[in-house]
Amino acid sequence: MTLPTFLGIGVPRAGTTWLHELLASHPDVYVPTHRKEVRFFDLYYERGVQWYGKFFPPEGEARRYQAIGEISPGYLYCPRCPERIESIPSITKLILILRNPVDRAYSAYGRRVRYREFSGPFEELLSLEPEVIRMGFYSPRIRDYLSYFSMDQMLILIHERAVADVPKTRETLARFLGVAADQFPLGGGTRILNRSYIPRIRPIPKTLTKLMSQRLRDWDLDRVANWANKIEQLLGAAGPLPPMEEETRQYLTELYADEIRDLESLLRTDLGCWK
Predict the structure, then answer these.
(1) What pLDDT is attached to residue 34?
(2) Can you give the pLDDT at residue 196?
(3) Could you give the strand order of the β-sheet that contains 6-10, starting from the edge strand earlier in sequence?
(4) Which pLDDT does position 204 carry in this prediction?
């Protein structure tokens, strides 16, 4: 049975789908094709490693890959995940992509609007769902992982820099995973994914289609769920998401100021691009 050698552990709305597609474009890297977020360690752990192994190639085929993994951004926020992941000996590398927590929060709002889970202003969402703000405090969650993994085992990507200099990002990923950087296709990582927008009116409420999609994945019918999502996307956008109010941005910037300084110390990196 084949199990991963690396995991992408977060964060949501920071480019994990972009990262998945970039890694999938490399011939020596394997990531699941039908389900990007396997979510074994937080949602399906009770199904056991035999179920988890079904998402990866059989041993004979696995030999052609130098790195095998999956990306589930929810892993960062799961208290039991670090210990569970550490218990799988093959997993020795973790990739974490971080985004300015202010922009990450607004992108989370955009996702809810796009999928018709919320229709009010951003400020109302922050009031109703404080978890949107709490998810921007990354350092406590990173420290949880550092109790089980060394910093050398973690690759921290900063979203703003990663997408601004894709060739450098490809080289960084290749070096970390032990694959050849020149095997990435030249256009790999240049496509923008999961844009936020105001959706057109849908004939079926998104809450229902989301429930149906989740049930299909629970039953391992990922191909059907993926086709349903593609059909929804064809309905398109009615317009772009309105920009964040400047007062709200200032409030969130001040709220996260200490967290960003803590992250700079913990990660030993300059996060001036977030300030």
Answers:
(1) 82
(2) 53
(3) 29-30, 67-71, 6-10, 93-98, 154-158
(4) 47
